[in-house]
Amino acid sequence: MPSSDLTPQSRSAALETLQATTAAEPLDVLVVGGGVTGAGSALDAVTRGLSTAIVEAQDWASGTSSRSSKLVHGGLRYLQMLDFHLVHEALTERDQLISKLAPHLVRPVSFLYPLEHRIWERGYVGAGIALYDTLASLTPGKRALPLHQHLTRKGMNRLFPDLRHDAAVGALRYWDASVDDARLVCTLVRTAVSHGAQAASRTQVIDLTHNAGGRVDGARLRDLETGDELRVHARHVINATGVWTEQTEALAGGSGGLRVLASKGVHIVVPRERIRGEAGLILQTEKSVLFVIPWSRYWVIGTTDTPWKQELQHPVATSADIDYILDHANAVLARPLTRDDIIGTWAGLRPLLQPGTKEGTSSAKVSREHTTASPAPGLTVIAGGKLTTYRIMAEDAVDFALGSQARNNPSVTSNVPLLGAVNLEVQRNWSRTYARIYGWSDAVVDHLLHRYGSLITDIVALCSADTSLARPLEHAPAYLRAEISYAASHEGAFHLEDVLLHRTRLNYEVRDRGLAALDEISALMSDVLGWDEARRQREVESYTARATAEAAAEADANDATAEATRLRVDDIAPMASLGPPPDAGLKPGSPPESAGTSGPVGT
């Protein structure tokens, strides 16, 4: 079985394999885009026995898929639209992830829906959440989550003491799930690689190529680490680039394709001890919903939903975004939050599908949440959707690309556990031994099992070879030194920012964005990747400049000035420009049609 390790050597080997393809011996499937949809598509294709490659212009999950609300849920709001099929589909995917596909990564979390009226609202909301549970019960097998509960004010206060006394007369408690979205993507990519897929991050598609008959037959790629360019041949190309959908499909020429606009969602992070509560909150706002989500060491609060008209790679939180979240959270909190309580923020862009397809699109399969289309022969585009249903989206994309051939070669990913899921219970039992050997607390063991599942054995192997790796980072003790080494040796972290942003969450879960830990982290990465002191220092300076710019942008009042502040700092491996974001026919200053109704970014 192929190795699942993502290393500089495996990346080079993948690019060599792509360069060796020919018109006579092409890849079956080339996936463009290393977010959750692209990673899921690569896994779907390779597990059908198709030769598959996935390329990503930056780090894995560097776009929307690391900046979501980090929820795996059915979507209560769709019940109001009477879209029972969509809710059932999402709940089925949620329960599969919890029970079979990724039980280490996806964990149950309960939410309170505060009630302001004693009788009619309890009946109305209660009926909706009962239907939510009923739709989940239609999924074959054992229930993955408990049924909802009705709570009196006293019961509500017991679960969430910091809910303002006059904010609600009671609540309904229901269950969904949460996930570290970036880890999910990395695990999907590694699982695909373990089944034979080729994977190369920091590899940008700069052109889509055609054969003599006008069919898209591959791409020209640029290695952003070296500047080298290469040609890859493929029978089918799948564009899964999210908010970059229109720029990528434009590389094929012609005018067909999907119309996608970006909506920004911002979240803030506050320490867990700052809000007393055991469950999360879901609050209706005038624009969408606001979640107060419990994580192990902090609360995540969001999101906003506003049109984004700046460049797509670096959305940032503004002062206005932060004020909006604080105002709505403080409306129900007994101890109001201030800016001083905030230890981190992030901003993500949700790709909003606009009605219809561009002229010249030959066919399309449309769902309420996502659409698959073919703007040119040989090219499949998928856009929209949400994190929870990534597997369905991936299946639709590969089915669409294969056409009639898909009937004889169906998706099998509903029965393919992700790396770390197999033998999880065995490693839970062994974890007691690991804890005794290395002096790890229950919290450390739970942290490792949550992040790695049964792959905790890889972490243990590193610690066995070098016991110093079993210690916590001095200035970021939530993580072991071994986790940094592992990110560089197994998880495709080739730059310091990859670790701070996507292999750990230090960029937003500690107040200094991880700056105090940079020397130790960069030294550990240097040992694995062979950096000299000049390279190590360049990585430290690059991340420091980025973190400083992001913090400064939070003081700006609007998107334009905040983005200008962020863009004063260059990227460590800059992408080639594909042109400005298309406006899809919008008049200057007008919002996208779906903005304000899209729900949490990326969820």
How is the secondary structure organized here?
Layout lengths: L7 H12 L7 E6 L3 H11 L5 E4 L15 E2 L4 H4 L3 H18 L4 E10 L4 H18 L11 E4 H7 L10 E10 L1 H14 L3 E3 L2 E8 L5 E8 L5 E11 L5 H6 L6 E15 L8 E5 L4 E6 L3 E5 L3 E2 L11 H12 L13 E15 L5 E3 L3 E7 L2 E6 L5 H13 L21 H15 L3 H11 L3 H10 L6 E2 L2 E5 H9 L6 H8 L2 H4 L8 H12 L3 H21 L5 H8 L37
Parallel strand pairs: 1-2, 1-10, 2-7, 4-12, 10-19
Antiparallel strand pairs: 3-6, 4-6, 5-6, 8-9, 9-10, 11-14, 11-15, 11-16, 12-13, 13-14, 17-18, 18-19, 20-21
Q: What is the terminal separation in angstroms?
A: 33 Å
What's the number of extended β-strand segments?
Answer: 21
Gross morphology:
globular
Proportion of residues in β-strands = 15-25%
Please tell me the overall pLDDT. Answer: 93
Largest sheet: 10 strands, mixed
How many DSSP helices? 19
Class of secondary structure makeup: alpha+beta
Instruction: Report Rg.
Output: 23 Å
Helix content: 25-40%
Written description of the protein model:
- The chain is α+β, with helices and mostly antiparallel strands.
- The protein has helices at 8-19, 36-46, 77-80, 84-101, 120-137, 153-159, 181-194, 245-250, 319-330, 390-402, 424-438, 442-452, 456-465, 481-489, 496-503, 506-509, 518-529, 533-553, 559-566; strands at residues 27-32, 52-55, 71-72, 106-115, 149-152, 170-179, 198-200, 203-210, 216-223, 229-239, 257-271, 280-284, 289-294, 298-302, 306-307, 344-358, 364-366, 370-376, 379-384, 472-473, 476-480.
- Strands 3, 4, 5, 6, 11, 12, 13, 14, 15 and 16 form a 10-stranded mixed β-sheet that branches.
- The longest helix has 21 residues, at 533-553.
- The radius of gyration is 23 Å and the shape is globular.
- Mean pLDDT is 93; it is low at 581-603.
